[in-house]
Design goal:
Number of strands: 3
Number of helices: 3
Distance between the termini: 18 Å
Shape: globular
């Protein structure tokens, strides 16, 4: 399970898994608007991470970001770490 600490949103953390074929599963937001975030988690379940990034990146709520935008940033960070395993996580 992957963990991402959000910045600038009501949710504090995003937990998720990525399958071998780059599908996102088991998304859970910690904190935030429970009903809306459960809906987001269900809507992205089984989707390709690039599709989720392109759909959610740039959506604004507070602090010039949103929980969906933070999920897109989490997936971009995941892709970067996967492509550069020799670099330590910040």
């Amino acid at each position: 399970m992957q963990t991402y600490m959000t910045r600038g949103t009501c949710s504090r953390q995003i937990l998720y898994d990525v399958t071998e074929d780059n599908k996102i599963t088991n998304v859970k937001f910690i904190g935030g608007c429970s009903g809306n975030l459960q809906a987001v988690a269900r809507l992205v379940d089984g989707k390709d991470i690039d599709e989720v990034i392109s759909t959610l990146k740039g959506i604004k709520c507070r602090s010039n970001t949103s929980c969906g935008d933070q999920l897109a940033l989490a997936l971009e960070e995941y892709k970067y770490r996967k492509a550069h395993p020799e670099e330590k996580r910040k």
